[in-house]
Design a protein that fits this description.
- The protein is an alpha/beta fold.
- It folds into 4 domains: 264 residues, Metal-dependent hydrolases (TIM Barrel); 189 residues, 3-Layer(aba) Sandwich (Rossmann fold); 213 residues, no CATH class; 133 residues, no CATH class.
- The strands form 5 sheets. Strands 5-4-3-2-1-8-9 form a 7-stranded mixed β-sheet, sandwiched between helices.
- Strand 21, helix 28 and strand 22 form a beta-alpha-beta unit.
- It is elongated and about 150 Å long.
- The chain starts with 6 loop residues before the first strand and ends with a helix.
Amino acid sequence: MADKGAHFYRCDFQVHTPRDLQWTGADRVTDDERMAYATSLVEACRQKGLNAVAITDHHDMTFVPYVKRASLAETDEKGKPLAAEQRLIVFPGIELTLAVPCQAILILDADFEENRFGAVLTALAINPAPDNAAKTAQTERLENIQSLKALKDKLDEHTWLRDRYIVYPNVTGEGKFSLLRNGMMAKYKEMPFVGGYVDGKLGDLKAGPISILAGKDKNWGNKRIACIQTSDNRREDNADLGKHTSWIKWVRPTAEALRQACLAQESRVAHEEPQLPAAIISSISVSNSQFLGPVELSFNPQYNTLIGGRGTGKSTILEYLRWALCDQPPASDDPDAPNYQSRRSRLIENTLKPLNATVDVGFTVNDVVHVVRRDSKDGSLLIKIGSDDMRPCNEAEVRALLPIQAYSQKQLSDVSVRTDELARFITAPIRAELNQLDRRIEERAERIRQTYANRRRQQALQNDLARRALEARSLQEQADAIRDSLTGLSEEDRSLLNEGKSYDAAEDIVDGWLADLKSLASGLSALSSNIAGNLAQAKPSPDAPEGVLLRAAYEEYAALMGRAREVADSLLGEVRQPIDAADGTAWAEWRQRLHGFRAAYSAAVGRSSTHRERMEQLQGIEGRLSAFHKETVRLQDELKSLNMAGDVYAAERQKWYDLKAERDGLFDRQCQKLTENANGAIRAHIKRFADAGDFVSRLRESLSGSNVRREKLEALGAYIVDAENPQDRWARVLSELEQLAAFEPEQEGADLRPDTASLAAAGLTATDLDRIARKLQSDDWLALSLIDVKSEPVFEFRSRENDYIPFSNASAGQQATALLKTLLNQIGPPLLIDQPEEDLDNPVMQEIVEQLWNAKRKRQIIFVSHNANLVVNGDAELVAWCDYRKAGDQSGGKIAGEGAIDVPDVREAIKRIMEGGEAAFNLRREKYGF
């Protein structure tokens, strides 16, 4: 593991060997036999998913060296020795039968010297069987050890042993070897150890023992201890190995690490595989820095703390992280508020840019490694995902792929005065879902823009055809009047002239049919080409899985597509015949007869010399009427293609509304979660259609120069959001504005301006409405209609039971405490906070500490802190401490060390650097009566 912090290891701390008197399997006596057994045990541990075992034969340690050597000799699939951190960890141990009376497991540091195993047995007055014996000696109770306190005193007599062991007494319910039997209360209460073990599953114990171990039984001293599940494997086939295990957290496999795990069992001991955050910052690498120099730091997946004296660089590391991951610091219009943006800009400008430094951040999401590199010279970004090469990206992409939630020093206290900062508590945990919804909303908005153009064309065609119908009627009446006025014509010529109108009507009808057929031919041709393209690009069936089945499916697909193309091509040939007026068809015959009639008609007109002027006038009108009819047919055909445009537009608009409602629903559910996560300290809900600011700004921009007063438009926004049903009112306002955008006062007459009751009710006068009608264009209206009237989260603070006040009315400390508790309860992206203790009231610090134990299972946490209680009793998996590069010189800092509190160097650094460090460790011990 790359980082130097604490990690979980799956452990079975009661593993017996062939020396055990109750062993089921062959004996192992020679070195080769014992080594073969040890090798098979290590392999079995791997198969069972174990990371660590304790070899705990009764009053015997003979097999421990063999298992340790087998672990050291383990190789990977290529036969190469495993790295030290990948090897199976083997703790030397002994199962003791004490005169307490109870059994206990003694476990030593994993690196405890083998040449002192005998001395450990001697210290306990154990006389083991000879090493070359097949079995251990018959177990005899250690009558000289009649209490667990006496056991500790005896072991601590030896300086080489002191602090290098841990004892777990048997607490398997009320069994004959358990410390929890009747009459053992005093022995339990005085015991100096902080853990115990059970043979099997902790959950199988009865309620009484569970209550005692949880420290809830006054008769047993309210003494709480951690419990370790063990399998008690005594079988050669290892059937019981790893059956009952516990996951224990440490940096180094030492007895002190096991003790620290017991002291923080909520955080460091689990009986089911622990769930770790899915998204973590894994590392930061700064090529150079004027202040810190090069930085290389790997982060733990759970709780990380950066500590150090003031000005040593711990906050700088946090800001480098946020800058590289493009986390946007909040801006503020308040001149008295901290300007986080300018602070960070100065930091980058002063410490990185002069050295052309780059910052690399490793970020792991669901085990996929991402690396972001940001260049201080121009702020440019590169990203690498998995095994891909680095490629350029932008800030929005980084924030979308690798989100974090971060707060600068004292920023939590400023949150309540910024609506967008408060909203982050709702949006941050659902950022991915929101981004997806926002993309779908924008895609739907684009379809609205496209379908709106068709709808407008449909409406324009309908209006145009209505006007054309009047014009055509006029021309037809004129032509009829001229025909009726003609006198002295032969009956044959008059009959021809009268038939002209019916031939014109028939020609219009036939042209309509042909237009339909041409449209069909175009569709069939496109369909045929589409099928051919699909067949050419279709991937062949795979050989696996189900190769035979998928080949049959592919053949059916290809056959269906081929037949479809044949049908399309065949039908296309048939459709082309009327269009081309092929010989022998009714279409060709109609064309011939129409041409014959036109010729006869022209001849009849030519013979009427006495009415030549009227005839020429009639010909002109009929020519115009014919051209007019042809254009009308074309427009009708276009209108036919747009037959569903209005419905399609309405459907797209409704889907856009539905997506917005889905987003509000997502906000609602997250508000409920936030209220639950805050344990009622904060209550949140979504107020729909609460902010019309963007809508009003866009309307004002569209009406610029119209002399409609600004306050009138702002009043319109208030009229919308203050309604009992703001969504309905917004829809009515939009509908009326659309009518005004489509209205043309100069052509239609100002007196015919559409009725706009809602706009009038909002305070807009007739003059205002006329100005809007003259200025607002349809394109402006479309853009306006796609501007959100935003929904907003509303936050309240619980001042006392069932009594809530506006969140802004709570004190800064109350606000920060409630918000931090909420953050710690949320599942979300990595949480970075600079000195959270500065926002908190001291009395709540212990509550925050206890929340940290659960919080780090849900999300990665990185705190910069001066508070030892947060670091020690919050049980940070990784502590990195900063110091000055040169003692007393505050011009440069460095990372002086890393580790976790089970490492002595880390504990000493905490005590030395942090005020209250010693007291925090004392509190940790006192909590457990140790």
